[in-house]
Design goal:
Largest sheet of chain B: none
Number of strands of chain B: 0
Helix content of chain A: 25-40%
CATH architecture of the largest domain in chain B: Orthogonal Bundle
Oligomer: heterodimer
Distance between the termini of chain A: 35 Å
CATH superfamily of the largest domain in chain B: MetI-like
Strand order of the largest sheet of chain A: 6-7-8-3-9-10
CATH superfamily of the largest domain in chain A: P-loop containing nucleotide triphosphate hydrolases
Number of helices of chain A: 24
Shape of chain A: globular
Structural class of chain B: mainly alpha
Strand content of chain B: under 5%
CATH class of the largest domain in chain A: Alpha Beta
CATH topology of the largest domain in chain A: Rossmann fold
Largest sheet of chain A: 6 strands, mixed
CATH architecture of the largest domain in chain A: 3-Layer(aba) Sandwich
Chain lengths: 550, 353
């Protein structure tokens, strides 16, 4: 934006960063240039491994363990950070440059109250007295539209919600009124509805205090709302940089265009099954609770062979709990689950091997879903061995066949261990493990939410192809409506343990909606840079907090 | 002033200057502070004190040299994967490996190495070292060196057996408790608490005086005393693994508990368990040596390091170092095992200092 042509705050030139692996230093950032003026917001975008966070940290003169800044210069307000001694850098961090991490829950110390952590920096730098700092914190909480600004700071981090914690962290970064804040994926772990609150809050406060910011994310639509200009990175190289609007309207490089095009994958909705068709899985009137806390109330839906049912809702809405009931990990209090018309025993321990084989699960975090100490061949081979009784050469053939099916070369992957694979490859192994059992029904629990968009699309296409080839029924748990649009046939919207609305995809995406569905749909960021502004105006800026809660 | 003293200071000062010249900061600080300390020591203790320092430094240098050479030796003979790990091993770990290796040789080939039998009386009581008796004779005229070699077999072998047994019991119970949870977990936990609440030496003394001092009973009692620690560690480590999604996936597949433990949980908990094995081995070793010293462990005339210390203890009042030799062997092996364990802990946890 032209009005922001002020003095240069941060100038990074030919920045090179090396990482230590396999006992040698390998360059991971190959000469990146960056200029940031006072009050300007720069969006850094790219897939994981592109070096976004590394560059963000380097802007503070910091390199992670096992990394080092090997060349180039980082000049912050006339100070060369790469040669500044550690003690001087420490004086800058927290006071003039602040950092907001991806997971606020992991970044707050659970043993101290929020406000005590907030006032730590101002007290340390002797900018304010304790009481002043606390009053200032409350004011910032109010500006960030946290509920009960006078009181919320005196809670412990686990006593507030994820979105509130992320805002509290932004407030904490603001405590010393820094010149520069680095936001490292601050909304990635949040629901769409919560994301809006945080985005709006961050944008407002950055504008109010005229703070410069580097906003790191992999979500284009989010960065479009926040940034004045956008820089696209690929594997440590700069692809292109431009002002937000021109970047969105006319990307120049092929890679940028491919990022923009990702969201185009969409599958036609299949024709609904006849009325007399028996669903593969039918969930009928399920209630479930963890201890005394009721989490599911009267949930019913059906999944037919060859179809995909998407279960949507924010976190805590009971999506995953419904999956746990189907798999038998959490026996429902009332109601039953039918498989091909026959009821399944509520506990997985009581189910037969055959019943267990028919329903498989693919997990969100491929990292924790694959045993790191077991070879790929054994991970995929075990279900085939366990259910099918395959041994020796037959087993090896089956594993090769499965690896082919998920488009990984058998000879290359057969003997490897999960930690040697990339996120997308791990998720494919998770899919292969589910397929190895030859199930009729697969639960996909947020399978793409931990992956980059390009990789996620590959996974979605793979799942789609497998469904056609093997006539599988999917229950697709997600909070990402773009994924739902891409792959679902039938959509179930859940809120607070209840199904608020369900129906075929085309019907669900055309008005009129249930108010909650409407809120979910309208909260999905769009590529339009004015989307957030327009949306906030529509909803009325002041009640954004309530709007998200309904 | 003797040539030795002049040479001593000349060497130190020269080395300090060289270190300073080549910008070896820490080495320079070490050498120069040694020089300054030597001035004081020279004034107070004279030439013998300086000899002492020289011999000490020489011994450390010798140990470092041995460790370095031994590490290179291991790197050369080990397969490529292991060699890569070994190359990163610190010198202390190499020293520990060397001592353990020597001890293992002594254990296996005791009959060939020892010049005399362990119970063979070959000279007068407390005979001083000579060509025949490398380290002198004990209170009955038996060769200390031979008894030291046989003692390695008895003491270390016994400690190894007891530790292994403690591990099998503790680890199995811990893994089952973590996997099963509920009543079994509670019951095992309380039993472990009860055993741990009794001081180990008193418990051992009590049990040994009830059941008699038989080797098998000794091993079992020591194993029972140490298994609760293993149980707690294993349960905690396995507890972290059990909540992972891959365990859930295996449970939903219908796998049995034994498969879960063997294939899914154990491979992910081995690193801390191995490190704990080294630590426990030291404790067990010291307990057995202690019991022998009290006369309740290994019975005479079988040689073991603990009872050797006790039998020769009277000599210490005559300024003889004989009783310190088996004690030194105990200390050396304990330190060696700890060096190796430290290295393993470092590798398994990625600890930095």
């Amino acid at each position: 934006m032209p009005s922001k042509k002020k003095e240069v705050l941060l100038r990074i030139e030919d920045l090179r960063i090396e990482g230590f692996s396999n006992e040698t230093w390998i360059e991971i950032v190959h000469g990146v240039n960056l200029t940031l003026h006072r009050g300007e917001v720069l969006g850094l975008i790219g897939e994981s491994g592109a070096g976004k966070s590394t560059i963000g940290l380097a802007a503070m003169g910091f390199a992670r363990d096992g990394c080092r800044i090997s060349g180039g210069s980082v000049e912050f307000d006339g100070m060369e950070l790469t040669t500044t001694p550690q003690s001087a850098l420490r004086a800058l961090r927290g006071s003039r440059i602040a950092y907001v991490a991806q997971s606020a829950a992991a970044s707050f110390n659970p043993a101290h109250k929020i406000i005590d952590q907030h006032t730590e920096a101002p007290l340390h730098y002797r900018i304010k007295k304790r009481l002043e700092a606390q009053e200032d914190a409350m004011e910032l909480y109010e500006r960030l539209r946290l509920p009960n600004p006078g009181e919320i700071g005196f809670r412990y981090p686990h006593q507030v919600s994820g979105g509130q914690l992320q805002r509290a962290m932004t407030a904490m970064a603001m405590a010393c009124r820094p010149d520069l804040i680095i936001f490292d994926e601050p909304t990635t772990a949040l629901d769409v509805t919560t994301q809006i609150e945080v985005l709006a809050a961050i944008r407002d406060i950055v504008e109010q205090f005229d703070t410069a910011a580097i906003y790191i994310t992999h979500d284009l639509a989010v960065v479009a709302q926040m940034a004045d200009k956008i820089k696209v990175l690929l594997k440590g190289h700069e692809v292109e940089e431009a002002a937000t609007e021109s970047m969105l309207d006319s990307p120049k490089e092929d890679y940028t265009k491919s990022l923009w095009a990702v969201r185009s994958f969409r599958r036609e909705q299949k024709s609904p099954p006849g009325d007399d068709a028996v669903p593969v899985i039918s969930v009928q009137g399920i209630d479930a609770a963890y201890g005394d806390a009721k989490v599911l109330e009267d949930v019913s839906f059906a999944v037919h062979a060859g179809m995909t049912v998407a279960v949507v809702g924010e976190s805590g809405s009971g999506k995953s709990t419904a999956a746990r009931c189907i798999t038998g990990l959490l026996p429902p209090l009332t109601g039953q689950i039918l498989f091909n018309g026959t009821p399944l025993p509520p506990r997985y321990r009581d189910r037969t091997k055959e019943q267990l084989r028919q329903a498989q699960m693919i997990y969100q975090m491929a990292d924790t879903a694959l045993n790191p100490k077991v070879r790929i061949s054994d991970i995929i081979g075990r279900p085939a061995e366990f259910y099918g009784g395959l041994k020796g050469a037959k087993l090896k053939n089956r594993v090769d066949e499965l690896l082919d099916l998920i488009e990984l070369e058998p000879s290359k992957f057969y003997h490897r261990y999960p930690p040697e694979l990339s996120g997308g490859q791990k998720q494919r192994i998770g899919i292969a493990r589910a397929l190895a059992a030859e199930p009729a029904f697969i639960i996909c629990d947020e399978v793409t939410s931990a992956l980059d968009q390009l990789v996620a699309e590959g996974i979605l296409k793979l799942l789609d192809r497998l469904q056609d080839e093997l006539n599988l029924a999917y229950m697709f748990i997600t909070h990402d409506l773009a994924t739902v649009r891409a792959i679902a046939d039938h959509v179930v919207v859940m809120q607070k343990g209840r199904v608020v609305e369900q129906g075929p995809k085309t019907e669900m995406f055309t008005p009129p909606h249930h108010p909650y569905t409407d809120l979910l749909l309208s909260s999905v960021p769009e590529m339009d840079p004015n989307w957030l502004t327009t949306l906030l105006e529509e909803r009325g800026v002041d009640n954004i907090g309530e709007a998200a809660k309904v | 002033m003797s040539y030795f003293v002049v040479g001593y200071y000349a060497m130190l000062i020269g080395a300090s200057c060289l270190a300073a010249h080549f910008k070896q900061r820490s080495l320079f600080l070490l050498l120069f502070s040694l020089t300054l300390v030597s001035f004081v020591m020279g004034i107070i203790g004279g030439a013998p004190a300086l000899w002492f320092v020289t011999v000490g430094a020489g011994l450390i240098a010798l140990a470092a040299g041995t460790s370095y050479a031994f590490r290179e030796f291991l790197v050369t003979i080990a397969p490529p994967e292991t060699a890569k790990e070994l190359r990163t091993a610190p010198l202390t770990a190499a020293f520990g490996l060397f001592v353990i290796f020597t001890c293992a040789i002594a254990m296996v080939f005791a009959d060939l190495i020892a010049p005399y039998g362990e119970a063979e009386v070959i000279s007068s009581a407390f005979a001083p070292p000579d060509e025949n008796l490398l380290l002198g004779a004990d209170q009955l005229g038996r060769d200390i060196f031979s008894r030291l070699i046989y003692g390695a077999r008895n003491t270390v072998g016994l400690a190894l057996a007891a530790t292994a047994l403690a591990f099998i019991m503790g680890a199995l119970a811990g893994l089952y408790a973590a996997t099963k949870g509920g009543m079994f977990d509670q019951a095992m936990g309380r039993i472990a608490d009860i055993i741990m609440s009794v001081p180990s030496l008193i418990f051992a003394l009590l049990m040994l005086s009830i059941f008699g001092t038989n080797l098998a009973i000794l091993v079992i009692i020591v194993a029972i005393i140490y298994s609760p620690r293993v149980f707690r560690l294993t349960r905690a480590v396995a507890g972290n693994v059990v909540v992972m999604d891959y365990i859930e996936a295996a449970k939903l597949r219908g796998e049995g508990t034994w498969y879960l433990i063997r294939k899914e949980i154990l491979p992910n908990s081995t690193a801390p368990l191995i490190a704990e094995f080294g630590l426990e081995f030291c404790f067990v070793f010291l307990l057995i040596a202690g019991l022998s010293f009290l006369g309740l462990g290994i019975q005479p005339p079988t040689a073991d390091w603990g009872s050797m210390v006790r039998e020769n203890a009277t000599l210490i009042s005559f300024g003889d170092i004989t009783p310190l030799i088996p004690a030194g062997a105990i200390a050396l092996l304990t330190v060696a095992v700890n060096f190796v364990v430290d290295w393993m802990l470092f590798r398994s946890s990625g600890l930095k200092e």
